């Protein structure tokens, strides 16, 4: 046997051959192999050198050291590091212990570590893909059947496949016997795919319909086959997905962008204010005051940076994740909690997410009855009703059809210890057992009366199956029940069962049955036809062609993977919230549109887009189309990725659900990737931001609601923290300008306020329940500034009021302390007033419209607890000697403390009066 030269082999494999569009003989010739003896050892070695190992290759990412270093390049932390260094130098010059510098460095390190742990979770999607590889594979090499490591496969190898084998490379089937492949890991569709070697398909055949090919990572469920390896490693379909996953760039979330913007504004504003204070101070008092001005500048820099904010945001997001777990949503990446609040489009898979992932009979048509069936899942509870909604009398023709559904069936329906009903076997056959159970016809009881005596098993060529059962007491000793493709069954029927009578079937009746079948199929239902035939004896095996003739028609059964009952309400909730649901599935367009119409994701008559149509569109054409299409069917992995990208280019903020390996690139590209917890593959879970523990679309909507609440609370405590910080900065800046000669607050005291006085109430505000209209408004604009919708104006306004009250107190207390003989006590009064005023701010900011007295104090008791605890801690700093010495405070008299409380109360009064004024505007 001769083989091509290396250059020819290289060209052969790297061309993107449409293997489904050529015969298996042509595939063998193109790969220059031999279907009986395989490749020889010499050629295998050459191809292994040329093509490399049959494994997925990982591109480089950020190292953990790089991630840690990047935490300390944050502009706010850089400024704090500079402040700590300068503060330490000043303290050492004055021969003082540099406790301020140490405290600032400790905060910098803690914030850096916090950021590192948020970002350092390594991306494991590729590792999960690698786990799909089979370690061993049976091949024919040198004419000998042998087992080799899957990593050593090369194009041209001959693989032998059997039930239970995980396929180790992409291949073209050479022969197949009753071959069923489970491709859910690749396509996301749960039903097995029947494969045939002799098919020749169109070049543009969708991935899920390439029935003459096998793919790496999928599993043989039934049968056996021989296949020639066509692609290995990164050239396989799984490899293409790995390439797409690694090609997706991680974009910062809206919260991360906003926090970055906030940092730049704060640092820029702080440096500007520092320059102004130093210039004015120098102009007033000359360069001899420079050291004092520098100390003032350091305190201002520390005051402007909300050191506790990263920790508060992280804890808030963590609290949000706990709430979402209770709502069956597991958050893998903390920023995703807030990001959910910005979602404008949810791209959802169909099977198991919008539907129950359980086939349920919807309609039954017998010659005399049009029947609708109610009930959910496989539970044999529900009704069998005529279309006028009156309970149907189970006529003989209906009873016979239900008996056929039970007896011509290899599945089992069971319930263990009063738990949920489940099936063992094919979901379609399970749906038939559930249907019969609703009429109190159960397989166990019926088979005792009418035991199976023989069968003609299902065959994909015949498209039908038959069973022969005992018929005690009947006109004939045996009955044969047949089910299968309606057209095939009807073609073999000469008669029709109408109640008690058997009549010859007419052409009009045939046309009516076919018309009903087409109508059901066009609505996305899977339709089966049923017939029976009396027999005098059990026929011999392999006589199905002779015996499956002259059948008596019983009727049609239409079934569907029914929508989840709660999803329709969730879809409506989405629409009220300004979120557009979109279905993206590998299923048939008719089925997809039927489900989408039922759930009101799309209206009947709306256009659906297939993967084949999408393939022929340019990216620009797709961008113009995505806003008009709500249903995508028969899609491939790259199609899902293109859809998400097109939506994002249209300004949409996209959540994408998925469970298969093929979903991973789109999950990673989406602003929020959502994997299925029950049916999802490890690959999809590792590529996602969130996992649905119940695989339910309604859970996404619940999580979105929680995300909006979290973002509202983040805005609330940012208003609280930064409004207070602006007041601190203005107060510190005013001290040298008023000629007080000293800084009222040390960096250590400012850190206390920013971490404790601000931090504890801020954490409590993170637990504020959502507003009643949270899902009746448009999504948060992901592009909006953190200062949008009045937040910036509020912070400046409240900061100015804060500073006016505190500066007034500062000027009075400075003179008062001098008269009292303790010139340092004014600093403690300023420090205490700032802290206590923030407590009133925390209580008032819970609502921007309702007065505090109008709100239920028990709706968020944590705020009251945080205010009480923080107040006590502040008093301990004044009256407990070790703490007083460490924080450089002084004991205040009862009168001085009362003045601090009184001035602080004015802050609360102002905020409440603002609400009254704004509500009357």
UniProtKB/TrEMBL annotation:
<comment type="similarity">
    <text>Belongs to the cation transport ATPase (P-type) (TC 3.A.3) family. Type IIA subfamily.</text>
</comment>
<dbReference type="Pfam" id="PF00689">
    <property type="entry name" value="Cation_ATPase_C"/>
</dbReference>
<feature type="transmembrane region" description="Helical">
    <location>
        <begin position="101"/>
        <end position="117"/>
    </location>
</feature>
<dbReference type="InterPro" id="IPR001757">
    <property type="entry name" value="P_typ_ATPase"/>
</dbReference>
<dbReference type="InterPro" id="IPR018303">
    <property type="entry name" value="ATPase_P-typ_P_site"/>
</dbReference>
<dbReference type="InterPro" id="IPR044492">
    <property type="entry name" value="P_typ_ATPase_HD_dom"/>
</dbReference>
<keyword id="KW-0479">Metal-binding</keyword>
<keyword id="KW-0378">Hydrolase</keyword>
<keyword id="KW-0106">Calcium</keyword>
<dbReference type="InterPro" id="IPR059000">
    <property type="entry name" value="ATPase_P-type_domA"/>
</dbReference>
<keyword id="KW-1133">Transmembrane helix</keyword>
<dbReference type="GO" id="GO:0140352">
    <property type="term" value="P:export from cell"/>
</dbReference>
<dbReference type="GO" id="GO:0046872">
    <property type="term" value="F:metal ion binding"/>
</dbReference>
<dbReference type="InterPro" id="IPR023299">
    <property type="entry name" value="ATPase_P-typ_cyto_dom_N"/>
</dbReference>
<keyword id="KW-0813">Transport</keyword>
<keyword id="KW-0812">Transmembrane</keyword>
<dbReference type="InterPro" id="IPR036412">
    <property type="entry name" value="HAD-like_sf"/>
</dbReference>
<dbReference type="InterPro" id="IPR023298">
    <property type="entry name" value="ATPase_P-typ_TM_dom_sf"/>
</dbReference>
<dbReference type="InterPro" id="IPR008250">
    <property type="entry name" value="ATPase_P-typ_transduc_dom_A_sf"/>
</dbReference>
<feature type="transmembrane region" description="Helical">
    <location>
        <begin position="791"/>
        <end position="814"/>
    </location>
</feature>
<dbReference type="InterPro" id="IPR023214">
    <property type="entry name" value="HAD_sf"/>
</dbReference>
<dbReference type="Pfam" id="PF13246">
    <property type="entry name" value="Cation_ATPase"/>
</dbReference>
<feature type="transmembrane region" description="Helical">
    <location>
        <begin position="892"/>
        <end position="911"/>
    </location>
</feature>
<dbReference type="GO" id="GO:0005886">
    <property type="term" value="C:plasma membrane"/>
</dbReference>
<dbReference type="GO" id="GO:0005524">
    <property type="term" value="F:ATP binding"/>
</dbReference>
<keyword id="KW-1003">Cell membrane</keyword>
<keyword id="KW-0460">Magnesium</keyword>
<dbReference type="InterPro" id="IPR006408">
    <property type="entry name" value="P-type_ATPase_IIB"/>
</dbReference>
<dbReference type="InterPro" id="IPR004014">
    <property type="entry name" value="ATPase_P-typ_cation-transptr_N"/>
</dbReference>
<keyword id="KW-0067">ATP-binding</keyword>
<dbReference type="Pfam" id="PF00122">
    <property type="entry name" value="E1-E2_ATPase"/>
</dbReference>
<feature type="transmembrane region" description="Helical">
    <location>
        <begin position="299"/>
        <end position="320"/>
    </location>
</feature>
<keyword id="KW-0109">Calcium transport</keyword>
<dbReference type="InterPro" id="IPR006068">
    <property type="entry name" value="ATPase_P-typ_cation-transptr_C"/>
</dbReference>
<dbReference type="GO" id="GO:0005388">
    <property type="term" value="F:P-type calcium transporter activity"/>
</dbReference>
<keyword id="KW-0547">Nucleotide-binding</keyword>
<keyword id="KW-0472">Membrane</keyword>
<protein>
    <recommendedName>
        <fullName>P-type Ca(2+) transporter</fullName>
        <ecNumber>7.2.2.10</ecNumber>
    </recommendedName>
</protein>
<feature type="transmembrane region" description="Helical">
    <location>
        <begin position="72"/>
        <end position="89"/>
    </location>
</feature>
<dbReference type="Pfam" id="PF00690">
    <property type="entry name" value="Cation_ATPase_N"/>
</dbReference>
<dbReference type="GO" id="GO:0016887">
    <property type="term" value="F:ATP hydrolysis activity"/>
</dbReference>
<keyword id="KW-0406">Ion transport</keyword>
């Amino acid at each position: 046997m001769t083989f091509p030269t290396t250059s020819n082999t290289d060209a052969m494999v790297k061309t993107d051959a449409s293997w489904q569009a050529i015969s298996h003989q042509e595939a063998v010739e193109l790969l220059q192999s031999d279907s009986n003896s395989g490749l020889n050892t010499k050629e295998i070695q050459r191809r292994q050198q040329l093509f490399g190992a049959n494994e997925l290759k990982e591109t480089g990412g950020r190292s953990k050291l790089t991630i840690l270093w990047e935490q300390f390049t944050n502009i706010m932390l850089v400024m704090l590091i500079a402040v700590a260094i300068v503060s330490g130098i000043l303290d050492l010059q004055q021969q003082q212990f540099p406790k301020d510098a140490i405290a600032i460095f400790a905060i910098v390190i803690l914030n850096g570590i916090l950021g590192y742990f948020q970002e350092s979770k390594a991306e494991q999607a590729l590792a999960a893909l690698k786990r799909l590889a089979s370690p061993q594979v049976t091949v024919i090499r040198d004419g000998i059947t042998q087992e080799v490591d899957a990593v050593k496969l090369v194009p041209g190898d001959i693989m032998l496949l059997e039930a239970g084998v995980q396929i180790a490379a992409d291949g073209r089937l050479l022969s197949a016997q009753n071959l069923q492949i489970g491709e859910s890991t690749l396509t996301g569709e749960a039903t097995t795919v029947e494969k045939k070697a002799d098919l020749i398909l169109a070049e543009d055949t969708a991935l899920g319909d390439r029935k003459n090919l096998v793919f790496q990572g999928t599993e043989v469920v039934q049968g056996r086959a021989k296949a020639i390896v066509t692609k290995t490693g990164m050239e396989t379909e799984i490899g293409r997905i790995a390439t797409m996953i690694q090609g997706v760039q991680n974009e910062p979330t809206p919260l991360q962008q906003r926090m970055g913007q906030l940092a730049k504004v704060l640092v820029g504003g702080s440096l500007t204010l520092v320059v102004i204070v130093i210039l004015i101070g120098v102009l007033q008092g000359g360069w001899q005051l420079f050291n004092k001005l520098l100390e003032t500048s350091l305190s201002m820099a520390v005051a402007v940076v909300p050191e506790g904010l990263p920790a508060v945001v992280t804890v808030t997001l963590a609290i949000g994740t706990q709430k979402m777990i209770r709502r069956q949503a597991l958050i893998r990446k903390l920023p995703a909690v807030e990001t959910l609040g910005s979602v404008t489009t949810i791209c959802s898979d169909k099977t198991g997410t919008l539907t129950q992932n359980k086939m349920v009979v919807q309609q039954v048509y017998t010659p005399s009855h049009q029947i609708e069936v109610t009930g959910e899942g496989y539970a044999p509870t529900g009704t069998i009703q005529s279309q006028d909604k009156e309970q149907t009398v189970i006529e003989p023709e209906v009873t016979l059809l239900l008996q056929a559904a039970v007896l011509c069936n290899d599945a089992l329906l069971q319930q263990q210890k009063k738990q949920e009903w489940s099936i063992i076997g094919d979901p379609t056959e399970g749906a038939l057992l559930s249907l019969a159970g609703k009429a109190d016809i159960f397989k166990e009881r019926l088979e005792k009366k009418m035991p199976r005596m023989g069968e003609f098993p299902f065959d994909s060529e015949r498209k039908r199956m038959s069973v022969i059962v005992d018929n005690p007491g009947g006109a004939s000793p045996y009955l044969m029940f047949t089910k299968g493709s309606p057209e095939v069954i009807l073609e073999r029927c000469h008669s029709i069962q109408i109640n008690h009578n058997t009549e010859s079937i007419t052409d009009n009746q045939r046309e009516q049955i076919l018309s009903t079948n087409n109508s059901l199929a066009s609505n996305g239902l899977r339709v089966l036809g049923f017939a029976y035939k009396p027999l005098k004896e059990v026929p011999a095996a392999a006589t199905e062609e002779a015996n499956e003739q002259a059948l008596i028609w019983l009727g049609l059964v239409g079934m569907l993977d029914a929508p989840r009952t709660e999803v329709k309400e969730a879809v409506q909730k989405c629409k009220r919230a300004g979120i557009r649901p979109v279905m993206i599935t590998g299923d048939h367009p008719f089925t997809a549109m039927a489900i989408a119409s039922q759930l009101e994701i799309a209206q009947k008559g709306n256009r659906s887009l297939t993967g084949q149509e999408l393939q022929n569109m340019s990216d620009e054409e797709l961008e113009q189309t995505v806003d008009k299409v709500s249903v995508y069917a028969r899609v491939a992995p790259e199609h899902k990725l293109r859809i998400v990208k097109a939506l994002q280019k249209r300004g949409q903020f996209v959540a994408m659900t998925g469970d298969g390996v093929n979903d991973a690139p789109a999950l990673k590209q989406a602003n929020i990737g959502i994997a299925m917890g029950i049916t999802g593959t490890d690959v999809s879970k590792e590529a996602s931001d969130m996992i649905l523990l119940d695989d339910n679309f309604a859970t996404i909507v619940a999580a979105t609601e929680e995300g909006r609440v979290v973002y509202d609370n983040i805005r609330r405590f940012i208003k609280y923290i930064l409004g207070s910080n602006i007041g601190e900065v203005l107060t510190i800046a005013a001290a040298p300008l008023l000629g007080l000669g000293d800084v009222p607050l040390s960096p250590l005291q400012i850190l206390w306020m920013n971490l404790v006085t601000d931090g504890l109430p801020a954490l409590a505000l993170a637990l504020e329940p959502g507003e009643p209209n949270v899902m009746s408004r448009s999504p948060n604009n992901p592009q909006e500034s953190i200062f949008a919708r009045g937040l910036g104006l509020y912070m400046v306004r409240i900061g100015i009021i804060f500073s006016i009250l505190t500066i007034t107190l500062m000027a009075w207390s400075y003179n008062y302390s001098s008269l009292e003989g303790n010139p340092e006590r004014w600093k403690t009064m300023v420090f205490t007033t700032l802290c206590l005023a923030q407590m009133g701010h925390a209580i008032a900011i819970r609502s921007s419209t309702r007065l505090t007295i109008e709100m239920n104090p028990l709706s968020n008791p944590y705020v009251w607890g945080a205010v009480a605890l923080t107040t006590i801690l502040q008093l301990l700093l004044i009256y407990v000697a070790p703490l007083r010495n460490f924080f450089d405070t002084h004991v205040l008299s009862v009168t001085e403390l009362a003045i601090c409380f009184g001035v602080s109360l004015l802050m609360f009064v102002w905020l409440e009066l603002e609400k009254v004024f704004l509500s009357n505007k």
